[in-house]
Amino acid sequence: MLDAFINEIKGVLQEALEEEMNNTLGYSKYDYTNKNTDNSRNGHTKKTVKSQFGKIELDIPRDTNCEHEPIIVKKHERTISSDLEGMIVSLFAQGLSNRDIESHMRKIYGLEVSAEMVTRITDKILPIAKEWQNRPLNELYPIIYLDGIVFNVNKDGQVVKKTAYVVFAVTIEGKKDILGIWIGEAESSKFWMGVLADLRNRGVKDLLICSVDGLKGFEDAIRASFPKAEIQKCVVHQIRNSTKFVSYKHRKEFCADMREIYTAANEEAALAALDRFEKKWGDKYSYAIKSWRDNWQYLSTFFKYPPEI
Protein backbone atom coordinates (compact mmCIF):
# COMPACT_ATOMS: atom_id res chain seq x y z
CA MET A 1 0.00 0.00 0.00
CA LEU A 2 1.41 3.39 -1.05
CA ASP A 3 -0.09 5.23 1.90
CA ALA A 4 1.75 8.54 1.50
CA PHE A 5 0.95 8.89 -2.20
CA ILE A 6 -2.66 7.78 -1.70
CA ASN A 7 -3.08 10.56 0.88
CA GLU A 8 -1.89 13.05 -1.75
CA ILE A 9 -4.42 11.69 -4.27
CA LYS A 10 -7.14 11.91 -1.62
CA GLY A 11 -6.24 15.55 -1.00
CA VAL A 12 -6.58 16.35 -4.70
CA LEU A 13 -9.91 14.55 -5.12
CA GLN A 14 -11.24 16.05 -1.90
CA GLU A 15 -10.46 19.59 -3.09
CA ALA A 16 -12.23 18.88 -6.39
CA LEU A 17 -15.29 17.42 -4.63
CA GLU A 18 -15.58 20.43 -2.32
CA GLU A 19 -15.29 22.84 -5.26
CA GLU A 20 -18.04 20.91 -7.06
CA MET A 21 -20.31 21.49 -4.05
CA ASN A 22 -19.40 25.19 -4.07
CA ASN A 23 -20.51 25.29 -7.70
CA THR A 24 -23.83 23.56 -6.94
CA LEU A 25 -24.69 25.90 -4.06
CA GLY A 26 -23.29 29.06 -5.62
CA TYR A 27 -21.18 29.97 -2.61
CA SER A 28 -18.10 28.63 -0.87
CA LYS A 29 -17.94 27.20 2.62
CA TYR A 30 -18.25 29.86 5.36
CA ASP A 31 -18.88 32.58 2.73
CA TYR A 32 -22.57 33.29 3.26
CA THR A 33 -22.46 36.76 1.67
CA ASN A 34 -23.02 35.16 -1.76
CA LYS A 35 -25.70 32.71 -0.61
CA ASN A 36 -28.84 32.97 -2.75
CA THR A 37 -30.40 29.56 -2.10
CA ASP A 38 -32.26 27.72 0.63
CA ASN A 39 -29.92 24.76 0.04
CA SER A 40 -26.83 24.23 2.21
CA ARG A 41 -24.11 21.77 3.08
CA ASN A 42 -25.14 18.76 5.12
CA GLY A 43 -21.94 16.99 6.13
CA HIS A 44 -20.20 14.18 4.27
CA THR A 45 -20.63 10.52 3.41
CA LYS A 46 -17.60 8.23 3.50
CA LYS A 47 -16.86 6.33 0.31
CA THR A 48 -13.99 4.03 -0.68
CA VAL A 49 -12.89 3.86 -4.32
CA LYS A 50 -10.31 1.61 -5.96
CA SER A 51 -7.40 2.83 -8.06
CA GLN A 52 -4.23 1.30 -9.48
CA PHE A 53 -2.40 2.85 -6.51
CA GLY A 54 -4.68 1.30 -3.88
CA LYS A 55 -7.94 2.07 -2.09
CA ILE A 56 -8.80 5.72 -1.41
CA GLU A 57 -11.26 6.76 1.29
CA LEU A 58 -13.11 9.95 0.39
CA ASP A 59 -15.56 12.22 2.21
CA ILE A 60 -18.30 12.98 -0.31
CA PRO A 61 -20.04 16.33 0.41
CA ARG A 62 -23.83 16.24 0.86
CA ASP A 63 -26.42 19.00 0.55
CA THR A 64 -29.68 19.46 2.47
CA ASN A 65 -31.94 19.31 -0.61
CA CYS A 66 -30.12 16.29 -2.14
CA GLU A 67 -29.63 18.21 -5.40
CA HIS A 68 -25.87 17.84 -5.66
CA GLU A 69 -24.39 15.27 -8.07
CA PRO A 70 -20.61 14.73 -7.68
CA ILE A 71 -18.79 14.56 -11.01
CA ILE A 72 -15.13 13.67 -10.56
CA VAL A 73 -16.17 10.58 -8.56
CA LYS A 74 -19.78 9.89 -9.46
CA LYS A 75 -22.46 8.32 -7.26
CA HIS A 76 -22.28 4.52 -7.16
CA GLU A 77 -18.81 4.66 -8.80
CA ARG A 78 -16.44 2.38 -6.91
CA THR A 79 -13.45 2.37 -9.25
CA ILE A 80 -11.65 5.46 -10.51
CA SER A 81 -11.90 5.84 -14.30
CA SER A 82 -8.83 5.47 -16.52
CA ASP A 83 -9.20 9.13 -17.58
CA LEU A 84 -9.10 10.25 -13.95
CA GLU A 85 -6.08 8.05 -13.22
CA GLY A 86 -4.34 9.58 -16.25
CA MET A 87 -5.11 13.05 -14.89
CA ILE A 88 -3.72 12.10 -11.48
CA VAL A 89 -0.48 10.81 -13.02
CA SER A 90 -0.12 13.94 -15.19
CA LEU A 91 -0.85 16.17 -12.20
CA PHE A 92 1.85 14.68 -9.97
CA ALA A 93 4.38 14.14 -12.75
CA GLN A 94 7.06 16.64 -13.62
CA GLY A 95 7.19 17.61 -17.28
CA LEU A 96 3.64 18.73 -18.15
CA SER A 97 2.54 22.36 -18.16
CA ASN A 98 -0.35 23.75 -16.10
CA ARG A 99 -2.19 24.23 -19.38
CA ASP A 100 -1.84 20.52 -20.23
CA ILE A 101 -3.14 19.53 -16.81
CA GLU A 102 -6.12 21.89 -17.11
CA SER A 103 -6.83 20.41 -20.54
CA HIS A 104 -6.92 16.95 -18.97
CA MET A 105 -9.32 18.24 -16.32
CA ARG A 106 -11.62 19.64 -19.02
CA LYS A 107 -11.80 16.20 -20.62
CA ILE A 108 -12.89 14.65 -17.33
CA TYR A 109 -15.57 17.27 -16.64
CA GLY A 110 -16.67 17.65 -20.27
CA LEU A 111 -19.63 20.01 -20.70
CA GLU A 112 -21.02 19.37 -17.22
CA VAL A 113 -19.29 22.42 -15.73
CA SER A 114 -17.99 25.77 -16.92
CA ALA A 115 -14.43 26.46 -18.00
CA GLU A 116 -14.13 28.84 -15.05
CA MET A 117 -14.92 26.06 -12.60
CA VAL A 118 -12.32 23.77 -14.17
CA THR A 119 -9.77 26.56 -13.76
CA ARG A 120 -10.75 27.05 -10.11
CA ILE A 121 -10.35 23.33 -9.39
CA THR A 122 -7.01 23.20 -11.20
CA ASP A 123 -5.75 26.21 -9.26
CA LYS A 124 -6.68 24.51 -5.97
CA ILE A 125 -5.10 21.13 -6.65
CA LEU A 126 -1.88 22.22 -8.40
CA PRO A 127 -0.19 23.46 -5.19
CA ILE A 128 -0.74 20.02 -3.60
CA ALA A 129 1.05 18.36 -6.52
CA LYS A 130 3.87 20.93 -6.66
CA GLU A 131 4.60 20.49 -2.96
CA TRP A 132 4.69 16.70 -3.41
CA GLN A 133 7.03 16.96 -6.41
CA ASN A 134 9.57 19.04 -4.50
CA ARG A 135 9.35 17.43 -1.07
CA PRO A 136 12.67 16.39 0.53
CA LEU A 137 13.44 12.67 0.45
CA ASN A 138 15.20 10.29 2.84
CA GLU A 139 18.99 10.06 2.69
CA LEU A 140 18.88 6.27 2.27
CA TYR A 141 16.52 3.82 0.57
CA PRO A 142 17.31 0.08 0.74
CA ILE A 143 15.47 -0.71 -2.51
CA ILE A 144 14.05 1.35 -5.35
CA TYR A 145 12.25 0.21 -8.49
CA LEU A 146 12.57 2.23 -11.68
CA ASP A 147 10.05 1.66 -14.43
CA GLY A 148 8.42 3.42 -17.36
CA ILE A 149 4.63 3.32 -17.81
CA VAL A 150 3.05 4.45 -21.09
CA PHE A 151 -0.29 6.27 -20.79
CA ASN A 152 -2.44 8.78 -22.70
CA VAL A 153 -2.48 12.50 -21.83
CA ASN A 154 -3.99 15.64 -23.33
CA LYS A 155 -1.30 17.73 -25.02
CA ASP A 156 -2.36 20.96 -26.77
CA GLY A 157 -5.87 19.60 -27.19
CA GLN A 158 -4.78 16.22 -28.58
CA VAL A 159 -4.45 12.83 -26.93
CA VAL A 160 -0.84 11.65 -27.16
CA LYS A 161 1.15 8.80 -25.65
CA LYS A 162 3.62 9.72 -22.94
CA THR A 163 5.94 7.70 -20.75
CA ALA A 164 5.64 8.22 -17.02
CA TYR A 165 8.97 7.45 -15.37
CA VAL A 166 8.06 6.17 -11.91
CA VAL A 167 10.41 5.56 -8.98
CA PHE A 168 8.96 3.28 -6.30
CA ALA A 169 10.88 2.81 -3.06
CA VAL A 170 10.93 0.74 0.09
CA THR A 171 12.02 2.68 3.17
CA ILE A 172 14.19 1.43 6.03
CA GLU A 173 10.94 0.92 7.97
CA GLY A 174 9.64 -1.35 5.21
CA LYS A 175 7.03 1.12 3.93
CA LYS A 176 6.39 1.59 0.22
CA ASP A 177 6.42 5.02 -1.37
CA ILE A 178 6.55 6.73 -4.76
CA LEU A 179 9.51 9.09 -4.81
CA GLY A 180 8.49 10.81 -8.01
CA ILE A 181 6.91 10.67 -11.45
CA TRP A 182 8.45 12.27 -14.52
CA ILE A 183 7.06 12.65 -18.05
CA GLY A 184 9.14 11.92 -21.16
CA GLU A 185 8.58 11.13 -24.83
CA ALA A 186 10.06 7.62 -24.66
CA GLU A 187 11.91 5.56 -22.09
CA SER A 188 15.65 6.19 -22.38
CA SER A 189 18.73 5.84 -20.19
CA LYS A 190 19.53 9.53 -20.74
CA PHE A 191 16.22 10.59 -19.27
CA TRP A 192 16.67 8.21 -16.31
CA MET A 193 20.02 9.87 -15.63
CA GLY A 194 18.17 13.15 -15.12
CA VAL A 195 15.61 11.46 -12.88
CA LEU A 196 18.32 9.99 -10.64
CA ALA A 197 20.10 13.34 -10.49
CA ASP A 198 16.83 14.88 -9.29
CA LEU A 199 16.59 12.29 -6.50
CA ARG A 200 20.07 13.25 -5.35
CA ASN A 201 19.19 16.95 -5.47
CA ARG A 202 16.19 16.25 -3.21
CA GLY A 203 18.36 14.68 -0.52
CA VAL A 204 18.95 11.03 -1.45
CA LYS A 205 22.57 10.14 -0.69
CA ASP A 206 22.61 6.37 -1.03
CA LEU A 207 20.65 3.53 -2.64
CA LEU A 208 21.44 -0.08 -1.80
CA ILE A 209 19.59 -1.93 -4.59
CA CYS A 210 18.09 -0.57 -7.82
CA SER A 211 15.65 -2.87 -9.59
CA VAL A 212 15.41 -2.00 -13.29
CA ASP A 213 14.20 -3.39 -16.60
CA GLY A 214 16.49 -4.37 -19.45
CA LEU A 215 16.89 -0.89 -20.95
CA LYS A 216 20.33 -0.46 -22.51
CA GLY A 217 22.53 1.97 -20.61
CA PHE A 218 20.52 1.82 -17.39
CA GLU A 219 23.60 0.74 -15.43
CA ASP A 220 25.59 3.80 -16.53
CA ALA A 221 22.70 6.10 -15.64
CA ILE A 222 22.59 4.67 -12.10
CA ARG A 223 26.37 4.71 -11.64
CA ALA A 224 26.50 8.40 -12.57
CA SER A 225 24.51 9.41 -9.46
CA PHE A 226 24.83 6.40 -7.15
CA PRO A 227 28.10 4.57 -7.94
CA LYS A 228 27.85 2.15 -4.99
CA ALA A 229 24.29 0.95 -5.69
CA GLU A 230 23.71 -2.72 -6.52
CA ILE A 231 21.73 -3.29 -9.72
CA GLN A 232 19.13 -6.03 -10.15
CA LYS A 233 17.59 -6.39 -13.59
CA CYS A 234 13.95 -7.40 -13.68
CA VAL A 235 13.65 -11.18 -14.06
CA VAL A 236 10.12 -10.83 -15.48
CA HIS A 237 11.44 -8.70 -18.35
CA GLN A 238 14.19 -11.27 -18.90
CA ILE A 239 11.66 -14.12 -19.06
CA ARG A 240 9.51 -12.22 -21.57
CA ASN A 241 12.48 -11.45 -23.78
CA SER A 242 13.70 -15.06 -23.60
CA THR A 243 10.36 -16.52 -24.67
CA LYS A 244 9.60 -13.98 -27.38
CA PHE A 245 10.46 -16.33 -30.27
CA VAL A 246 9.95 -19.71 -28.62
CA SER A 247 7.49 -21.88 -30.55
CA TYR A 248 4.21 -22.74 -28.87
CA LYS A 249 4.96 -26.47 -28.73
CA HIS A 250 8.21 -25.81 -26.80
CA ARG A 251 7.01 -22.95 -24.58
CA LYS A 252 5.74 -24.90 -21.56
CA GLU A 253 8.84 -27.10 -21.28
CA PHE A 254 11.15 -24.18 -22.07
CA CYS A 255 9.63 -22.03 -19.30
CA ALA A 256 9.76 -24.89 -16.78
CA ASP A 257 13.48 -25.39 -17.44
CA MET A 258 14.15 -21.65 -17.31
CA ARG A 259 12.31 -21.37 -14.00
CA GLU A 260 14.97 -23.58 -12.38
CA ILE A 261 17.48 -20.77 -13.00
CA TYR A 262 15.76 -17.91 -11.17
CA THR A 263 14.21 -20.05 -8.40
CA ALA A 264 17.49 -21.73 -7.45
CA ALA A 265 18.56 -21.62 -3.81
CA ASN A 266 21.84 -19.83 -4.58
CA GLU A 267 23.94 -18.53 -7.47
CA GLU A 268 25.95 -21.73 -7.81
CA ALA A 269 22.77 -23.78 -8.27
CA ALA A 270 21.40 -21.14 -10.65
CA LEU A 271 24.50 -21.33 -12.87
CA ALA A 272 24.25 -25.12 -12.92
CA ALA A 273 20.61 -24.77 -14.01
CA LEU A 274 21.69 -22.30 -16.70
CA ASP A 275 24.27 -24.80 -17.98
CA ARG A 276 21.57 -27.49 -18.24
CA PHE A 277 19.27 -25.00 -19.91
CA GLU A 278 21.92 -24.15 -22.51
CA LYS A 279 22.73 -27.80 -23.19
CA LYS A 280 19.07 -28.57 -23.86
CA TRP A 281 17.94 -25.46 -25.71
CA GLY A 282 21.13 -23.78 -26.94
CA ASP A 283 20.90 -25.05 -30.52
CA LYS A 284 17.27 -23.98 -30.99
CA TYR A 285 17.19 -20.74 -29.00
CA SER A 286 20.75 -19.48 -28.70
CA TYR A 287 19.58 -15.85 -28.42
CA ALA A 288 17.88 -16.65 -25.08
CA ILE A 289 20.99 -18.32 -23.65
CA LYS A 290 23.16 -15.42 -24.78
CA SER A 291 20.82 -12.93 -23.13
CA TRP A 292 21.03 -14.75 -19.78
CA ARG A 293 24.84 -15.01 -20.02
CA ASP A 294 25.36 -11.39 -21.08
CA ASN A 295 23.14 -10.01 -18.31
CA TRP A 296 24.05 -12.47 -15.57
CA GLN A 297 25.97 -9.90 -13.54
CA TYR A 298 22.75 -7.92 -13.02
CA LEU A 299 20.27 -10.82 -13.07
CA SER A 300 21.97 -12.62 -10.17
CA THR A 301 22.29 -9.77 -7.66
CA PHE A 302 19.39 -11.04 -5.54
CA PHE A 303 21.29 -14.26 -4.75
CA LYS A 304 23.52 -12.20 -2.42
CA TYR A 305 20.58 -11.57 -0.11
CA PRO A 306 18.17 -13.71 1.94
CA PRO A 307 14.85 -14.79 0.36
CA GLU A 308 12.92 -12.14 2.32
CA ILE A 309 14.63 -9.39 0.29
Overview of the molecule:
The protein has 309 residues and is α/β, with parallel strands linked by helices. Helix content is 44%, strand content 23%. Strand 3 and strand 4 form a beta hairpin. The longest helix is centred in the N-terminal third of the chain and has 23 residues, at 3-25. The radius of gyration is 24 Å and the shape is elongated. The model has no long low-confidence stretch (mean pLDDT 90).
Instruction: Let me know the largest β-sheet.
Output: 5 strands, mixed
Order of helices and strands: HEEHHHEEEHEHEHHHHH
Helix percent reads 40-55%
Low-confidence runs of at least 5 consecutive residues: none
* Strand count: 7
Domains, number: 3
What is the general shape? elongated
Instruction: State mean pLDDT (0 to 100 scale).
Output: 90
Rg for CA atoms: 24 Å
Distance between the terminal alpha carbons, to the nearest Å? 17 Å
SS class: alpha/beta
Strand order of the largest sheet: 5-4-3-6-7
Compute the number of helices.
11
- The fraction of residues assigned to DSSP E strands is 15-25%
